[in-house]
Amino acid sequence: MDSSEFSWKLKDHPKLPKGKTVGLIVLDGWGEANPDQYNCIHVAQTPAMDSLKQGAPDRWRLVRAHGKAVGLPTEDDMGNSEVGHNALGAGRIYVQGAKLVDLALASGKIFEGEGFKYIKESFKTGTLHLIGLLSDGGVHSRIDQLLLLLKGASEHGAKRIRVHILTDGRDVLDGSSIGFVETLEEELAHLHEKGVDAQVASGGGRMYVTMDRYENDWDVVKRGWYAQVLGEAPYKFKNAIEAVKKLREETNANDQYLPPFVIVDENGKHVGPIEDGDAVVTFNFRADRMVMIAKVLEYEDFDKFDRVRFPKIRYAGMLQYDGELKLPSHYLVSPPDIERTSGEYLVHNGVRTFACSETVKFGHVTFFWNGNRSGYFNPEMEEYVEIPSDSGITFNVKPKMKALEIAEKARDAILSGKFHQVRVNLPNSDMVGHTGDIEVTIVACKAADDGVKMILEAIEQVGGIYVVTADHGNAEDMVKRDKSGKPLLDKNGNIQILTSHTL
Ligand SMILES: O=C(O)[C@@H](CO)OP(=O)(O)O
Ligand SMILES: [Mn+2]
Ligand SMILES: [Mn+2]
């Protein structure tokens, strides 16, 4: 479109009346699957959602929230919050970070871009550090991309490389971290044969080390800083395979929550703290869980914890994670240019918006919704309310989370008459589904349904309109299955719990 033709003005809807309040509910991780005992949404009492499905079948639609339908590379890619909320908020499908990184690696353009040139300056005398999630989950990162980055960086002059791994178990099966570390170690051994000094230097589980989001718990990021930058951690090992195996056995932690560890040499010295003159790349493409570490690595002024030492490094993200903050300022691949999102249209058309969730999902209905931009388009027209999440717990301990509080805020916003769009994210089915705790996930689904009920009642009271949807699946299937749909068993005869999202 020629920019002179462009107008923010929206036409009236052909059918829906003007001036009605719209309640928009995103049930995080609420999908459709065959009804059996591992489908927590089916097992849970969910009268509000059932009444929608049964009471208005002509208005009930299944939507595709995975694969190419939401801009992911392949049909095997499960949906996730970032792509789900980006698509909902923008009303359009963008080729997402995962795919953009694939393309940049395949064409080799990643190594010609500004970001790579910037970090390359450090290769002569400094070390290249790569920090990120080690799995093939494809939600935040992919190990094949890391391996290509390692290879390409060494071909472009990196002589000393240190990898700081974050184990997954959330987008992939718990326990699979060992295999991913083995694969990484093989590639590092190849590099070694070619004369590159490449090793794993530190690690920890993604939910306990580094990958917090929306500033829920800075201690998570601090643990990572100590291990990665300062070289200090409660556990020390000679190699990463041993580290992951022993920590799983000895601390009983799962992959998501492994405690931080560092790799040390024969003299007990850390093999790779981050020093002045080094280069650092965070290799996750997804934004939310990289914003906090990007701030710590980049911001001169920083007061969330004592960094002890703030090395002068060249830092680049795989992508730029926050388009508003322009964070980080250097990146290897340009993020999808998500523009003219629905939120921006609304403020230009005099529609007042209220958005709410609890901390762990707050950015989903604000930051992701607005195309990975933090902040308001117009604070006079919008109000965003964050309900503080519990921190330092896994959510199977409190499966109701803040669903009730979110619903109450939404109800009050609807009844106040001040807003024409009230949007929320109810996190329960997703956050508790990720713990793999089936019994408790059932409680979580019920809690989300209670939230839906309260919001719909408020909408009915004001004669409004509602949309209830989801960003991807999770709680509707809690077990890994074979192709025919039969649950898979592990070597002890137990079912293999599925902690991840679904297709
Ligand atoms: O917790 C997360 O980071 C992802 C799973 O990796 O879940 P969601 O996309 O629902 O936020
Ligand atoms: Mn989600
Ligand atoms: Mn999730």
Automatic annotation (TrEMBL):
One GO CC annotation: cytoplasm
Catalytic reaction annotation: (2R)-2-phosphoglycerate = (2R)-3-phosphoglycerate
Cofactor(s) needed by this chain: Mn(2+)
Matching SUPFAM superfamilies: 2,3-Bisphosphoglycerate-independent phosphoglycerate mutase, substrate-binding domain (SSF64158), Alkaline phosphatase-like (SSF53649)
GO MF annotation, one: manganese ion binding
Superkingdom, taxonomy of origin: Eukaryota
Domain (Metalloenzyme): residue spans on this chain: 20-502
Keyword list, A-Z: Cytoplasm, Glycolysis, Isomerase, Manganese, Metal-binding
Entry annotation: catalytic residues: 81
Sites where the protein binds substrate: 140, 170-171, 206, 213, 286-289, 361
Gene3D superfamilies: Alkaline Phosphatase, subunit A (3.40.720.10), BPG-independent phosphoglycerate mutase, domain B (3.40.1450.10)
Binding-site residues for Mn(2+) 2, renumbered to this chain: 28, 81, 471-472
EC class of the enzyme, as a word: isomerase
Bilayer-spanning residue ranges: none
The keyword Lipid biosynthesis belongs to this UniProt entry's keyword annotation: no
Subcellular location: Cytoplasm
Gene Ontology BP term (one): response to carbon dioxide
Binding locations of Mn(2+) 1: 430, 434, 501
Pathway: Carbohydrate degradation; glycolysis; pyruvate from D-glyceraldehyde 3-phosphate: step 3/5
Domain BPG-independent PGAM N-terminal as annotated: residue spans: 101-322
Quaternary structure and interacting proteins, as annotated: Monomer.
The family this protein is said to belong to: Belongs to the BPG-independent phosphoglycerate mutase family.
Designated name of the protein: phosphoglycerate mutase (2,3-diphosphoglycerate-independent)
